[in-house]
Amino acid sequence: AKPRGRDAQPAGNSAMMDALAAAMGKKR
Predict the structure, then answer these.
(1) In contact, 3 and 11? CB cutoff 8 Å
(2) Where are the domains of the chain?
């Protein structure tokens, strides 16, 4: 399940959050 907060954030932040989510997913 992806964080819906990323949807609420602007596109610029979306890319950063996406990278963070990917890192977190890999860590998990």
Answers:
(1) no
(2) 1-28
